[in-house]
């Protein structure tokens, strides 16, 4: 039986690893490559011309939507399964035959059902350009709408009970202390009425990484990375305190891949 030549493109190592593990249980899948960012994904797709791509929507370099648009008009006809952590309000945009979606965190039963549809369409797929075009346009409309309602800014508590909107580029790190959450800029610290888990989800796809259960950092504000004990790392942030943070062991591989350590 001819196997389905498959690629995973996702900037999060744990997510790639989990999906690769689940696909390894499917006998007709041949996982030929994995990509950790959009540019690497596009290079691999052009070289390997796979049958199936699991494509994360939010990646550095090029987004999954960018890649889908670029290969849509090329001599490459893979089935695309978009991978996303979007909430249910966006799921309607994915309800298109042949072009499918997979929500994080992954559910094995959902993947198996998806693969049944892939197998039905893999030999007749022509990229279904009109449907893909509809999907991409709708997702971009959702993205633009989100920008209009304040995506790219974080609401924090300011003086006199006012609410201040911090641009993501202003934030150096977000941390928890005494059961409260704080966002630090170069000038000040602000209390945030949220949880780190909610903030981690909100900031996904931007320049932030949760390196520890108590810290989310702005990757663009990292001053130094210092090798630490037993293969771990200490991070020095580019703030006036030169804050030093230890990376949790579960995030070491992700950090290594982001910075090519």
Structure write-up:
- It contains seven helices and 15 strands.
- It is α/β, with parallel strands linked by helices and 261 residues long.
- The protein folds into two domains: 145 residues, Response regulator (Rossmann fold); 107 residues, OB fold (Dihydrolipoamide Acetyltransferase, E2P), CATH 2.40.50.
- About 2% of the residues have low confidence.
SSE order: EHEHEHEEHHEEEEEHEEEEEH
User: What is the CATH homologous superfamily assignment of the largest domain?
Assistant: Response regulator
* Average of the residue pLDDT scores: 80
Oligomeric assembly: single chain
Pick out the low-confidence regions: 146-150
Counted up, domains total 2
Which percent band covers the strand fraction? 25-35%
Q: Please report the first level of CATH classification, the CATH class of the largest domain.
A: Alpha Beta
Q: What is the topology, as strand order, of the major beta sheet?
A: 2-1-3-4-5
Compact summary:
By secondary structure, this protein is α/β, with parallel strands linked by helices. The protein folds into two domains: 145 residues, 3-Layer(aba) Sandwich (Rossmann fold), CATH 3.40.50.2300; 107 residues, LytTr DNA-binding domain (OB fold (Dihydrolipoamide Acetyltransferase, E2P)).
Write the SSE topology:
Blueprint: E1 4-9, H1 13-23, E2 29-35, H2 38-48, E3 52-56, H3 64-72, E4 79-84, E5 100-103, H4 108-121, H5 129-148, E6 153-157, E7 163-167, E8 173-177, E9 180-184, E10 189-192, H6 196-202, E11 208-212, E12 215-218, E13 222-227, E14 233-237, E15 244-246, H7 252-259
Parallel strand pairs: 1-2, 1-3, 3-4, 4-5
Antiparallel strand pairs: 6-7, 8-9, 8-12, 9-10, 11-12, 13-14, 14-15
């Amino acid at each position: 039986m001819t196997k389905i030549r498959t690629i995973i493109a996702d900037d999060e190592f744990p997510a790639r690893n989990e999906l690769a593990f689940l696909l390894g249980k499917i006998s007709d899948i041949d996982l030929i490559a994995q990509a950790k960012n959009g540019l690497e994904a596009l290079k691999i797709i052009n070289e390997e011309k796979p049958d199936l791509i699991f494509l994360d929507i939010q990646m550095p370099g090029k987004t999954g939507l960018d890649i889908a648009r670029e290969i849509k008009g090329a001599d490459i006809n893979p089935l695309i399964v978009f991978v996303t952590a979007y909430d249910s309000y966006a799921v309607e945009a994915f309800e298109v035959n042949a072009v499918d979606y997979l929500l994080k965190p992954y559910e094995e039963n959902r993947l198996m059902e998806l693969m049944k549809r892939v197998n039905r369409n893999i030999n007749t797929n022509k990229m279904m350009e009109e449907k893909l075009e509809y999907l991409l346009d709708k997702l971009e409309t959702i993205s633009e709408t989100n920008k209009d309602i304040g995506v790219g800014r974080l609401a924090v508590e300011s003086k006199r009970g006012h609410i201040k909107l911090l641009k993501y580029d202003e934030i150096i790190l977000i941390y928890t202390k005494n059961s409260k959450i704080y966002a630090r800029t170069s000038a000040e610290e602000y209390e945030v009425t949220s949880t780190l888990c909610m903030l981690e989800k909100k900031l996904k796809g931007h320049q932030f990484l949760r390196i520890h259960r108590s810290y989310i950092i702005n990757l663009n504000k990292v001053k130094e990375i210092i090798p630490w004990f037993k293969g771990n790392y200490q991070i020095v942030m580019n703030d006036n305190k030169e804050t030093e943070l230890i990376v949790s062991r579960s995030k070491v591989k992700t950090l290594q891949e982001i910075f090519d350590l």
